Amino acid sequence: MSDLLTLRNVTKRFGGLVAVNEVSFTLGAGEVVGLLGPNGSGKSTVMNLISGELPATSGSITFDGTDIGPLPPHRIAKLGISRTFQLVRLAESLSVRDNVIMPLAFASPHVWGRKARRRADAALERVGLGGQGDMAPADLNYIDQKRVELARAIAPDPKLLLLDEWMAGLNPSELRTAIELIRGLGDTGITIFLVEHIMEAVRELCPRCIVANAGSVIADGPTEAVLSTPDVRRAYLGEAADV
Amino acid sequence: MKFEKKHILFLIGAVLVVAGLAALPLALKDYGDGLLLGLFSYITLASAWALFSGPTKYISLATVAFYGTGAYTVAVLNETLPFAVVLVVALLIGLVISLLVGLATLRLAGVYFVIFSFGLAEMVRQLITWFETRVTGTLGRYVFVDLTTTHLYWMLLGLACLTLFIRWWIGESRLGLAIHAIGDDETVARHAGVNVTLVKLALFAISAAIITLVGAIQSPRYVYIEPSIVFSPTVSFLTLIMALLGGATRTWGPVFGAVPLFFLFEWLSTNLPDHFSIVLGLIFVGIVFIVPNGVLALIEGLFTRKRRGTRT
Asked: A110 and B195: CB-CB below 8 Å?
């Protein structure tokens, strides 16, 4: 398996606070990997460093042979990294379809006009929002807004998809649908890196996971093995926890 | 883009309307000419202002900074260069200033940008005043150009058409999506591959260049120019309020705002000159409270409600 994304000794400091501390890992092309850790362990910051939302204080991030560390988010997006946000972010003044068309219109090479509409509608169909392209984002409920975000992320056929707690807040039946949806995406060969608190989803979707605590990686390996190491259980579930 | 029947019909209609407007001065006396000129000046100003500030929601009070710069460029150069060349120079000056200002300020968000843009207008005015009194030694300048009001009106009519065309074109292009997204959430736009800084800068510069040209074309009408005349903050406020009344995110919004308000202000300044500012303020407050999204959105809302009402 060839390496798609490599983080080497990546550190992010906010003033005196070290949010991400000397983090290194590699994602192979086609892998589906989970990033776990308690609140404040730096998971979202790692996502923001990869997508370019935040610049790293030190260390290097390489994607598909390109050093993306110094690049702004719009350049990184064009290279084939898409993401969703922890709290849904949509362009409220655009229709649902136009939200999905946008990354196509600014991909390289860009897709526009009827072809973009077709691809956007196909992406919406895929996430279960077929025929709702003309709606305004504000008219959709929270779950459907999350679906729009996913459609927006997958529409340009990214090489790497970053999902930041995309499944948070779903009820059990929605969670089933969501897991199947992500599994289907993983089966198409797209590399997925997801931050998730829902263990059921991580166990089912991610053969491998990385665990962060207080800004450092404390475990990286096959999910079941990682989840049963003492360090991880202590960090994640508290000292006296028992599963 | 494919041309459909409605496009052709629109084009024919537009040509007829513009031809009619261009012929209007033949039927009007001098006062009417001046009115038309003022009207199209504000239509263009409001449309150009909305081009940038409408979708991005960066509320600019710098309109008069560029307008005055355009007027002053003509005042300084009108005796040495042909008018057409002066216009090109004004356009370039507007572009350069807006690019410099944009690079420095478009990172400012919300209210900071509003304050900065207001400060910019004052700064340019003070700079020119300082320069004129200290270096050239004359504060006022005369503008004598061999052009009639009708000529100037035709130029502004053309510029208004161009501005509307640019706004329409942006709305149809990828840029339209990008600027709306920028106004909603810059992070979303950036992660969709939009070079947010470049888009904002480009639109700000286009808008400022048009506004500078309006000032330049209007310049001969003043005959006598000094900074307090062409850098009056009222120009910025009127432009803003017209665009807001019509609806700044729509192509035709500023036109529908500029027409009634221009005539209203014209009437006020002759009949209630002492209370002009009070009425202006009241109208401002009224628009923000009653039609925050502009009259076009309001009318559209009424229509869709009516249609929905009949369906159920």
From this structure: no
Q: How many domains, in total, are found in chain B? A: 1
Rounded Cα–Cα distance for residues B177 and B47 (Å): 18
The closest CB to that of A106, out of B55, B174, B184, belongs to: B174
Answer yes or no: are the C-beta atoms of A38 and A236 closer than 8 Å: yes
Domain boundaries, given as residue ranges, for chain A: 1-80+159-243, 90-157
Q: Which domain holds residue B191?
A: 15-232
Residue B103 lies in a domain: yes
Topology classification of domain A1-80+159-243: Rossmann fold (3.40.50)
Q: First and final CA of chain B: distance in angstroms?
A: 37
Q: Which residues on chain B are in Cβ contact (under 8 Å) with A92?
A: 184-185
Q: Give the distance from residue B179's alpha carbon to the nearest chain A alpha carbon, in angstroms.
A: 10
Cβ pairs A/B, distance under 8 A:
77
Give domain status of residue B283, yes or no. Answer: no
Yes or no, beta carbons of B184 and A72 under 8 Å apart? no
ipTM for the complex shown: 0.91
Sign of CA dihedral B295, B301, B304, B309: negative
pLDDT digit of tens for each residue in chain B (312 aa)?
A: 556 788 888 888 888 888 888 888 877 777 788 899 999 999 999 999 999 999 998 999 999 999 999 999 999 998 899 999 999 999 999 999 999 999 988 877 778 889 999 999 999 999 999 988 888 887 788 988 888 889 999 999 999 999 999 999 999 999 999 999 999 999 999 999 999 999 999 999 999 999 999 999 999 999 999 898 999 999 999 999 999 999 888 889 999 999 999 999 999 888 888 888 888 889 888 888 888 788 888 887 777 666 554 443
Residue B247 lies in a domain: no
Determine whether the interchain pair B181/A74 forms a contact, defined as Cβ–Cβ distance below 8 Å. no
Single-letter amino acid, residue B96: V
CA of B84: how far to CAs of B80, B89, B154, B232, B271, in Å?
12, 9, 14, 25, 37
What span, in angstroms and rounded, lies between the C-alpha atoms of B251 and B170?
Answer: 10
Question: Min CA distance, B176 vs chain A (Å)?
Answer: 10
- Chain A residues whose CB is inside 8 A of the B196 CB are 74
